[in-house]
Write a structure and sequence with these properties.
Strand 6 and strand 7 form a beta hairpin. The protein is built from four helices and eleven strands. It has 207 residues and is an alpha+beta fold. Strands 1, 2, 3, 4, 5, 6, 7 and 8 form an eight-stranded mixed beta sheet that branches.
Length: 207
């Protein structure tokens, strides 16, 4: 009966609407401790990669069909990219899920890499050019440059304007996406990586 179907919704966990049609990935925002100082580890993507070659990112990767929304994806992919066992990663907490304007969902986790010497890393050169260890203090003491990308609706000619109020004069909303740029020793961290990093630094300052 219809009533039974409606009752079955009780206890349902919410997901992100439209998530089925997005590219999903999970990443670690990994910290390392050396000489009692915290460092953030980044990867510089191999220049042979099809997507974003040479850009700086966090370790992690695409969600497999059998993965759930958990830290497993981020740890598995990070282990493969950095060449260390999965038990070298300790997840501290999830950070806020990012829904990108470019049809993707990124699930970030704050984590610590439990090795003392970066020479223990055996990076996968097919995917990673090299790694960067940047002092966490740098990000706490230096605000990023902020620039904005404006977005607007690109409506095709065959759009059914006759079905909406004001027709072709409908006031579609425009957007403004902040883009953060951290520059360290000639390397630029920007895009989704910088947005996740900025979110973490903001939380850390408020803690």
């Amino acid at each position: 009966m219809l009533g039974d179907k409606i009752s079955s919704f009780a206890g349902r966990n919410a997901k992100i609407l439209g998530h089925e049609n997005t590219f999903k990935s999970a990443v670690l925002l990994p910290l390392m401790v050396a000489d009692e100082k915290y460092f953030v580890l980044f990867e510089k993507r191999a220049f042979s990669m099809n997507r974003q070659p040479g850009e700086i990112c966090f370790p992690g990767g695409a969600k497999e069909p059998t993965d759930d929304y958990s830290q497993y994806t981020a740890i598995r992919e990070s282990s493969e990219e950095l060449g260390i066992p999965t038990d070298c990663f300790e997840v501290i907490a999830p950070l806020d899920i990012m829904v990108s304007s470019f049809n993707s969902i990124i699930i970030p986790y704050l984590a610590q890499i439990k090795i003392q010497d970066p020479s223990m890393l055996r990076i996968n050169k097919d995917e990673v050019e090299n790694v960067l260890l940047i002092p966490l203090d740098f990000f706490l003491e230096n605000d990023p440059e902020v620039h904005y990308i404006k977005t607007s609706a690109q409506v095709p000619d065959d759009f059914p304007f006759h079905l909406i109020p004001n027709g072709r004069n409908y006031p579609f909303r425009t957007g403004c996406i902040p883009q953060y740029f951290y520059i360290w020793e000639g390397e630029t961290i920007w895009g989704l990586t910088a947005s996740i990093l900025h979110h973490f630094i903001d939380l850390l300052k408020k803690a």
